[in-house]
Each structure stands twice: as structure tokens, then as C-alpha cells.
């Protein structure tokens, strides 16, 4: 059982069913704009129909003005690592990661769903990226684009990709090639 | 002077100043969700501080259930082409386009701003993509990602990229490498 500090918000969108794999999405920083909250809510609520799903936002580190970027990333990293269980398969959303198509992501997820029982944790970092300790714990890195997207917007973009991936696995008509 | 049908909404976010280049963004289909409208509005209102900017949404084609995808794309294409002036430099957002970094996009835009007086038109297609007539009129194609994003969400993602590009050109602290 993980020890979750009480100030961290966790929304469990579907309960764990037996040994069924769970997908966790962790973001650094509160979603502070209403339009982003609404967009995120839309896709997270759709996802729960497909997979046990958990979304966590790590609160922004306070009083960062006197800290180096590396200190900010280290503090965020401690919070991130506390949310990861030993057997979790950790995938960082990172500009140095592998780019894949939406169908490629769906296949990748399906392969893990079929072959492994470990939970998959996707992590979206803060504006400065990840601390080396988080890189050290990661199993894979995924890049959404060569472009840099707003780290707040990335959570909505990626939630939509996860939803899209499940519609692709189920052969539903949401995705057009 | 272009003939714009009265049912097409055009928001001019800044008036043309002399011969200064204008950027136009054309999207196929109305933005129908409030959170997407709010997100788009945020970045379009920021963009007007940097460049004369015009955003146009082409209404969805009606009664498409009896039409082939190609017919839908042809109808959308007619509407798109009516909005393009002869000298415009046309860039399609298309999965077959070139991927570039945010800094790469900023440099590309800056080069054109410095060297050319023609307007730049970015076009985001509908869910089935572009008709061949639109491909025929295009000068460049740009891809945001190997992944397929919701075509409604692409307009917000790309508006943020355009805003980001101008902050990069001006050396403002919005973008972190």
C-alpha cells in the first residue's frame, strides 16, 4: 500500500477489478484554468468506461523563486516517486521520448494489457521537465510531438490520446485513419 | 477583395497595418465545446499583440450522411479556397507534413516575416482531411505530431504554438528549452 500524503488529490475513476491492469496518469502542477479542467474531465470520464483509471495532480512546489530549476525538479521528483509502486511500468511523457502514431500507442497498450498485470503509470512533468531520479525510475519515454506544448495542455492532449487508444482497440468509429 | 459568404464567421483580431504581413488561421467546422472555445479565445487574444491575425471557421457541411467522404472534402475545399487570396502562402496542417520544433516554427515564421510581404494562411481540415484541390493550392504542409489529434483540439494546440512562436521570436520567457 502506497503512503499518499493527504494534500495530494487522487481521483479514482474506476475501481480495480481483481487483477485487471490499471492505468495511472500523474501530472505535476494543478490544472488552473477552467477550460483545461473541463477538457480533462471530459476525456477522463470517457476513459473510465474502458479501463480502471486513476488521475493524480501533484501540487505545485511553493516559493520556487529562490530555488534552482534542479531543486524544483528534485522536489517534484520526490512527490512523483512516492506515487509509484515497485512493480509499476513507468512511461514518461518527454521530448526525448519515442514518437508513435495513435494506432501505435493503442497497440503498445494492448500488448501490455494482454501480457502483463503490472499497472502502467504515465507521467507529465512540470515546465522544466523531470529530475534525474525520475528518469532513473522510468521504463519508457514517449514524445507527443517535436513541438513543445504547454505542460498544462499536455494533460488534455494525452487524456484524449488514451481515450482514442481504447476506441482503436475496441474498433469504435472515433478514430479516422 | 475576397468575396466572403455572409454565413462564414471571421474574427479579425488586429487590423492590417500598411503592408505588414497578416497571419490567417482557417478551421473546418464550428468549435462546438465551450472549453475549446475558451482555450482558443485565450491564445487568439494573446496573438493579436504580436501580429495582424484573422481566424475563420468554416461551417460544417450539412446532411453529410448521404455523401461520400470525398464529396464532404470537396465541399469543404470549395469553402477553404474561397478564403485564400492569390498571393497567400498556404500551409496545411496535415499528418503528411513536416514536423518541426517550436523554435523551428518560430524561425520559419520569422524568415517569412522578414523576407516576404504575402500573408500566411494556416489551414486545419475536417476529420477526413483535405480535398486534393486544397493540397494542389498549398505551398507547405506542417505536421504537429505522428499522433492523430482531435481536429477540434488541433485549433487550440496550434493557436498556442503560434503564440509560443511569437514569444520565442521576441525572446520572452514563455518558452523553456
Q: How does this model look, in words?
A:
Two copies of one chain form a homodimer. In chain A, strands 1-3-2-5-4-6 form a six-stranded mixed beta sheet, sandwiched between helices. Chain A is α/β, with parallel strands linked by helices. The relative contact order of chain A is 0.21. Chain A has helices at residues 34-47, 69-82, 102-115, 132-137, 151-169, and strands at 9-12, 23-28, 53-58, 89-99, 120-124, 140-143.
Task: Note the total helix count of chain A.
Answer: 5
Oligomerization: homodimer
Binned strand content of chain A: 15-25%
Low-confidence stretches of chain A: 13-18
Question: What attributes characterize this protein structure?
Answer:
177 residues; Alpha/beta knot; 6 strands; 5 helices; alpha/beta; six-stranded mixed β-sheet; homodimer
Topology (SSEs and partners):
The structure is a homodimer of 177-residue chains.
Chain A: E1 9-12, E2 23-28, H1 34-47, E3 53-58, H2 69-82, E4 89-99, H3 102-115, E5 120-124, H4 132-137, E6 140-143, H5 151-169
Parallel strand pairs in A: 2-3, 2-5, 4-5, 4-6
Antiparallel strand pairs in A: 1-3
Helix pairs in contact in A: 1-5, 3-5
